[in-house]
Amino acid sequence: MTTRLALILFALIVGAVALDMAMGWGGTLFVLKKAYGLLDWVMFWR
After folding, report:
1. Which residues have CB under 8 Å from 9's CB, separation 6+?
2. CA–CA separation, 23 vs 18, rounded Å?
3. What is the SS3 assignment for 25?
4. Cβ atoms within 10 A of the Cβ of 32, count?
5. What tens digit of pLDDT does each residue of 5-44 get?
6. Measured in whole angstroms, how far is the alpha carbon of residue 19 from the centre of its chain?
7. 3-class DSSP state of 6
8. Close Cβ partners of 1 (under 8 Å, ≥ 6 residues apart)
9. What is the pLDDT of residue 40?
10. Per-residue CA distances from 40 to 5, 21, 29, 34, 45 (Å)
11. Distance CA 46, CA 36 (A)
């Protein structure tokens, strides 16, 4: 994974969490679990 791709993924995850908190949807834990799953998947394929 390149640094650029890692930064893009980080920005998307932080943006999703910030949007979730701002809208008050209450799914922050869900978003963080999905982000962890994505990280685990990327680490597996690395």
Report:
1. 38, 42
2. 9
3. coil
4. 14
5. 888 988 988 888 788 778 776 667 777 788 788 888 887 7
6. 12
7. helix
8. 42, 46
9. 84
10. 15, 24, 16, 10, 9
11. 15
Looking at residue 25, what is its pLDDT?
A: 66
Helix (H) or strand (E) holding 32: helix 28-45
Model confidence at 46: pLDDT above 70: no
Copy the structure tokens of residue 8: 């893009």
Q: Which two tokens stand for residue 21?
A: 């908190």
Position 11 scores a pLDDT of 92
The residue length of the chain stands at 46
Task: Specify the pLDDT at position 1.
Answer: 67
Q: CA 14 to CA 17: how far, in whole Å?
A: 5
User: Do the beta carbons of residue 20 and residue 31 sit within 8 Å?
Assistant: yes
